[in-house]
Amino acid sequence: MITKDARILLVDDLNLIRRMLRQCLDEMGFKYIEDATDGNEAIFKLSKARSKGVPFDLLFLDWNMPNKTGIEVVEYCRASELFKDLPIIMVTAEAEKKNVLRALMNGANDYIVKPVSADILRAKLDHINEQLKKKVG
Amino acid sequence: MGAAQKLPSLQTDPLLKDELTESVIDIFKSAFDLDVRLVSFIKCNGYDLVGDVSGLVGMVQESIEGNLVISFSLPVISRVFSKLYPSEFTTVTDDVRQGCAELANMIYGRLKVQLNGRGFDLKMCLPSVVTGPGHRVHQNPAEVTVLKFEFENKYSFEVVISCHNR
Q1: Nearest CB to B84; choose among A20, A93, A94
Q2: N or C: which end of chain B has fewer CB within 10 A?
Q3: Distance between CA atoms of B80 and A113, rounded to whole angstroms?
């Protein structure tokens, strides 16, 4: 379950979008939020946190980033024993259905179209929690 | 979409103005909690946008090429970003440059869903940015749609769509 104590990693090459997400999550009461600016840094931070015994519980992932795209990070996570169950929400300006489907087919749990608002985030986190409940049940 | 199928004309599309307006208003409200309103609208051939920072994104499909440009003076973009950044921008920093390009990208992303839902088949394009005090983005005599927006009764900016047949 994603609770207010969840450890969250925000991955976007744009500071503006990371700030936007962070502000919404702050307003919602989340306390443990870290940033990464591209896919490689995200994978490094995911692995490091895991090895320290404080893994991330949720990943917000931009689609278009330098070095490694969001979809490549999703593929990496889903192929890894360590991160195959990590909840991932893709965040992108690409709002078309075919792109939403592509993200979900590649293993993302959900999808947010920029800009991000607290209402949308809340709904998406509820959706993720429903998914997690079903998995456990 | 097959080559034989005729794509609709963006230049004469009756919904373009309203959908672009809606997209701009929605993005500014949800991203920055700003209530912007449309204050003027013109269609013309050729136009010079003037600003300190401009975000651009290509609008490309089989039969037309065009772009969407949004231009701001530094005090206006600084005000727009003030909800997310604690201190005012006195120069065009990387955050301003990238943020302005992303703003154009978000507006286009929202608009593209509407247009493609009506068969325009516009492709995904990466945004870019132009900076420089008082620079001009010149739209050489393409058909241009110019929308001017205002917020807080003193800040204004323009959004332009231009396109021509390929």
Answers
A1: A20
A2: C
A3: 20
Q: Which of B94, B105, B116 sits opposite A93 (nearest CB)?
A: B105
**Within a domain: B113:** yes
Helix, strand, or coil (residue B120): coil
Chain B residues with CB under 8 Å of A94 CB are: 109, 124
Tokens for B136, please give them. Answer: 């001009």
Mutation choice for B interface testing from A16, A37, A69, A71 by most B CBs within 10 A: A16
Domain count, chain B: 1
CATH number at residue B91: 3.40.1550.10
User: What is the rounded end-to-end Cα distance, in angstroms, of chain B?
Assistant: 17
Q: Is the dihedral of CA B90, B161, B156, B15 positive or negative?
A: negative
Residue B48 domain-assigned (yes or no): yes
Mean pLDDT, residues A98-117 taken together: 87
Residue B160 lies in a domain: yes
Contacts of A111 in chain B (CB under 8 A): none
Residue B111, domain extent: 16-165
On whether residue B88 sits in a domain, the answer given is: yes
Nearest CA in chain A to B113: A96
The residue in chain A having the minimum alpha-carbon distance to the alpha carbon of residue B101 is: A14
A93 to B108: CB separation less than 8 angstroms, yes or no: yes
CA A82 to chain centre: 16
Domains in chain A, CATH or no CATH each = 7-113+127-136 (3.40.50.2300)
Of residues B106 and A134, more confidently modeled: B106
As given in the structure block, the two tokens for residue A54 are 């404080």
User: Across the 166 residues of chain B, what is the mean pLDDT of every consecutive 10-residue run?
Assistant: 54 86 95 95 91 94 87 97 91 95 94 88 88 91 89 97 81
Sequence length of chain B is 166
pLDDT band at A135 (very low <50, low <70, confident <90, very high): confident
